[in-house]
Design brief:
mainly alpha, 59% helix, globular
Length: 110
């Protein structure tokens, strides 16, 4: 495995802090489905991505495809961009947090 590929995988795993089970449970909630950009009243981009993230987390690290690595880069990029936009005050019940959780990152999880 090349150094570049390893760094993409490491960054993905350090950015995504929810387990596949936590993320799957979250994606079932009304809050999860209430946020994100939607096309044609369809499922939001983040919600779809959450499902893909579950698949990535369940895969063996040495079986990732180029498409998987591309998705991981997209997830890391989104999480980092979104974290930089943290609103003031308590974020527990905010659309900002809900959106991040759709992408596998819970900002208040220790």
């Amino acid at each position: 495995m090349s150094k570049d590929i390893k760094s993409v995988i490491d960054e993905f795993y350090s950015s995504v802090n929810m387990t596949p089970k936590e993320l799957a449970s979250w994606l079932e909630t009304e809050e999860s489905q209430s946020v994100g950009q939607k096309k044609n009243d369809d499922e939001s981009i983040g919600h779809k991505s959450g499902k893909q993230i579950i698949g990535l987390l369940k895969k063996k690290k040495d079986t990732y495809t180029d498409d998987d690595l591309s998705e991981m880069k997209k997830v890391v990029s989104y999480i980092h961009r979104h974290l930089a936009q943290q609103p003031e005050g308590d974020v527990e019940h905010t659309r900002w947090r809900y959106s991040l959780k759709n992408w596998g990152h819970d900002p208040i999880k220790s």
